[in-house]
Every structure is written in structure tokens, then in C-alpha cells.
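Researcher: Let's do a round of design. I'm pasting the C-alpha cells now; please hold your answer until I've finished.
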């Protein structure tokens, strides 16, 4: 039997995710099989951040936390003209980054973190790509490290979980929490390693179709989606005229 539970509001999760009562028991769906069409659809999709190398990935993922990818893409060309590599960034005073990143949320801390990282690494060639090493740098958590590794073309060592993934994974019913770390863990337990790009695939679906106002009728996941099969279908049935 499924129990309806309302997700608790937190400061980091937008209201549209939390205000929905989800059917929290994870379904008996065969997720490795059910997510294959989604993985296929987005397997060649590039991450929305337009980074060109490991240095740019590292800088852009730090800047993008709580700021939009569009904003970071917009300011990146000027930033990288001034600070083309780790060596240039290592010589900079954090305040000299401000004119380039002042529209980014928490920019003063981020400038500090980036220069600190550059001073430690000294050279672009020294950027480590192992998960354990990446998460040691300030401003880089598991999501960012997973994004950097994906950008470098490395096989996933974890699963990317961003705000879109949180929304989509809960609606589908593949996870039963809004905590990003727990979601990554649940997905890693549920899916074989060759499907660990599913977090990014769910993120793409969340950006295009499963937005806060989801477009379920055109969604390729609706057959297995808990939210569609419980909440949306009931709404449609209620609004259909009785004969
Ligand atoms: S069916 Fe609707 S709620 Fe489910 S994943 Fe697709 S768009 Fe989102």
C-alpha cells in the first residue's frame, strides 16, 4: 500500500517541489529498463554550461552554484580572456575578478575560492579528475565534481543531481527524498553504473518538459511516472464530463 507524505519545505528546495504530496513509497518499477528511453534521448546532449576544457569547467561550475547557466555562459568569454588558465588565475587578487563576476550570487566568496584553488594547483595540467580530489576544493561538491568529470569525457563516478533532477526523480517515483545526497545514493543503488548519466538525463527532461508546470501529455516517461499516474490522471478524470 502506498502512503501519501508531504515533503518538508527546506531553504534550498523551491516551493513547487515541496508543496506536492508524493506517493513516497518507491515503486516496484524496473527503473534500469524504464529509464533507457530517457538515457537514449539525451545521450548526446551537452551540459548547458559552455566550458571548453577542465580549467573552464572548474571555474564555471563554481560560479554557477545558485546562478543560472545562461548568466555564467554570458560572462565566461570576458572572464577567460582576462584569466585564460590556472596560471593566470593563481597570480590574481580575488578582488580583480569582481568586475567580471559581480552579477553572480556570492561572487566575493567564489572569487576567493577560485584564486585559492588556482594557487594550490598552479597549472591547468595539475587539475585532478578523481571525485575524491575534486571535492576537496572550495565550492566543489559531488554534483560539480560529477559535472567536471562528464565535461572531461570520463565515465561517471557518481550521479549528477541538480534542482531539475530532484524534481523529476521525485515525480517519477524513482527516489523518495528531496535531499540531493540521498537522491544520488538511491539512484546509484537503483541503477547499474552504465546508466549513471540518468541524473543528467533527468535534468534535461526537467529543463525541457518536466518543468515546474509539467507537460505530461508530450512526456516519454508518462507510462511509468508516479506523478502522472496518480496526480495528473486523477485531475483529468475529475474534470472529464460525466455521461
Ligand atoms: S509524465 Fe509529467 S510529471 Fe512525469 S516526468 Fe513526465 S512531465 Fe514530469
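Researcher: That's everything. Go ahead.
Model: Designed sequence:
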Amino acid at each position: 500500500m502506498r502512503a501519501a507524505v508531504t515533503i518538508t519545505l527546506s531553504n534550498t528546495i523551491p516551493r513547487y517541489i515541496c508543496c506536492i504530496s508524493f506517493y513516497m513509497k518507491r515503486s516496484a518499477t524496473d527503473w534500469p529498463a524504464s529509464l533507457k528511453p530517457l538515457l537514449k534521448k539525451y545521450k548526446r546532449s551537452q551540459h548547458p554550461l559552455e566550458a571548453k576544457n577542465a580549467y573552464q569547467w572548474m571555474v564555471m561550475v563554481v560560479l554557477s552554484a545558485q546562478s543560472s547557466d545562461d548568466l555564467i555562459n554570458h560572462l565566461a568569454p570576458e572572464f577567460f580572456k582576462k584569466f585564460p588558465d590556472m596560471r593566470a588565475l593563481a597570480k590574481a587578487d580575488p578582488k580583480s575578478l569582481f568586475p567580471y563576476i559581480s552579477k553572480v550570487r556570492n561572487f566575493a566568496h567564489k572569487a576567493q575560492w577560485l584564486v585559492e584553488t588556482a594557487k594550490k594547483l598552479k597549472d591547468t595540467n595539475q587539475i585532478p579528475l578523481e571525485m575524491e580530489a575534486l571535492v576537496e576544493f572550495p565550492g566543489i561538491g559531488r554534483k560539480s565534481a560529477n559535472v567536471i568529470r562528464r565535461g572531461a569525457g570520463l565515465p561517471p563516478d557518481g550521479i549528477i543531481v541538480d534542482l531539475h533532477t530532484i524534481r523529476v526523480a521525485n515525480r517519477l517515483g524513482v527516489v523518495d527524498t528531496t535531499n540531493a545526497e540521498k537522491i544520488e545514493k538511491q539512484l546509484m543503488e537503483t541503477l547499474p553504473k552504465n546508466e549513471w548519466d540518468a541524473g543528467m538525463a533527468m535534468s534535461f527532461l526537467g529543463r525541457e518538459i518536466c518543468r515546474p508546470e509539467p507537460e505530461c501529455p508530450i512526456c516519454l516517461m508518462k507510462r511509468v511516472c508516479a506523478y502522472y499516474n496518480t496526480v495528473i490522471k486523477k485531475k483529468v478524470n475529475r474534470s472529464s464530463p460525466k455521461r
